[in-house]
DNA sequence: TTGAAAGCGCTAACAA
DNA sequence: TTGTTAGCGCTTTCAA
């Protein structure tokens, strides 16, 4: 076990006191040029790298932030959505000295750990994704002394600091597009209504139809999964056989719905037009290619990280809502 | 800034010495039942949570492992492959006290940081993914005092500890399947040949054809990306217009290749049979659905984590190769 | 501009 | 079975 080079060794080698060496390392003032140079030479001669743990203990700063994903589904992270968020987060953290700790709070253990982080400052900041329903963690996070930024908004309250996509606006855009292309019996398949995104997309659908003076009561309920999309579509078809378009709150569900529609002998977009949400890679490859609402997922991650950095720096950033846009393909 | 509850406070409250309290916390022996109870009560009364940083400094163990992804492409993590690996890794780490730190070493800064971790033990262990070519990090990692397990094998050497999928076997399986279904002019589109997986899949293709006594010289070179698959297919079509099957080293490339084949008026699998590799979600949704080689990605992550834990515990685990299997769909 | 010294909160060796 | 004590490697007053 190779012992590490300590600050004392650097100081000795450079012939200065440890405090002087420390000042140089953290380039603080009050050090003469001569000593500064001597220390720097010693550092590179010895290959000195500060011990992060010791520094953390002394400064009471951890040097790490947590990206937490709270969900009951252990597979969440396999969702390309989160992977992209993580990429965005990482890209801004890479410019700093902060480490990125991943905390998937899917099991009770994970939850507990996240709670402890929040209560006892085991991290300099936390980014919290995917709160559904009245997740108690969300409340705890909002009240914690640790800086927290939310990704997406929980339904039970509006956090002080969050970054979200304009889900409502995106859903309106999609639904308005269906109206403009001449559809009049427009249904929707919702996502989980206990998640902010699910609810917001549903509201956007309602708004658009209300403004067009159309009936917004053709609704099937899903949970964002492909399978639930299929089920909801079957039910819609049974209850509203006259529908001529569907706004589906996720691409996965849209894929399930398209399958059911084809099986029922309906053509897309001839008989029924479809618009999805998220613009996952798959959307380009369905048959026909899926029109969908695209959200800037990486930016979401980047902005969350930036906001957290601002918070840690003692600033008071304002919440951010990122724009979504409609991507027209052949399914509508 | 709420101050944290210290061990001293617990000790005082319980009326015992700090060392006794410490022993209870780490449930070490040599504490009477009475004191043990007293301490436990104090802990829950005060809501004491040990300070991880202080503990790390005292024990010289960091309490965290890093999952490092070394690549020149900042988007790597958006690849569903890594997301799944991460899910697997997390699932076993969740059972331990170890944190999971994510280190995407795409930029120079990231690389440097990873180097420092390796050199100066800023983590208790490292899992290293996606080494391509003669990445110097790989060598450094292999020689590091820090326990390291590789995910996949670099081409330049065989690490002491690694988990890999049976890429070669999978490629053989796929190619043999093409032979068995009566194809005789079988081409391949390779992945990056400076990655272990790319090379192994190519070798598997060669082996299978050699054993069948067929010509293995219809080869197009790609880099795993969809676009490169398309280009390679175009070139293959130009050079070997008689081909009747293609083993493609990744599903993404297979998708690109299928597009080109269709544009060229070839039917799939009528004129040309296709088999991909990886079994990404997309493979189920192509037209026709893509036959492919499936590898247990989450298991890969889980086994990497398990192996690292073993290493940290001072054991000497043996490398692991996880089986792959052929998934037959309509493209072959 | 400099250095001595007192922590940060915990663990572990040692003595009692 | 107990408690005392000396660190872990760094930062940061404070006095010189």
UniProtKB/TrEMBL annotation, chains A, B:
Alphabetical list of SUPFAM superfamilies matching this protein: lambda repressor-like DNA-binding domains, Periplasmic binding protein-like I
Q: Gene3D superfamilies in the record, alphabetically?
A: 3.40.50.2300, lambda repressor-like DNA-binding domains
Sorted alphabetically, which keywords does the UniProt record give?
Answer: DNA-binding, Transcription, Transcription regulation
Span of domain HTH lacI-type: 5-59
Which Pfam families does the record match to this protein? LacI, Peripla_BP_3
Gene Ontology molecular function, alphabetical: DNA-binding transcription factor activity; transcription cis-regulatory region binding
Classify the source by domain of life: Bacteria
Which PANTHER family does the protein's record reference? HTH-TYPE TRANSCRIPTIONAL REGULATOR GALS, LACI-RELATED TRANSCRIPTIONAL REPRESSOR
Put simply, this protein is called LacI family transcriptional regulator
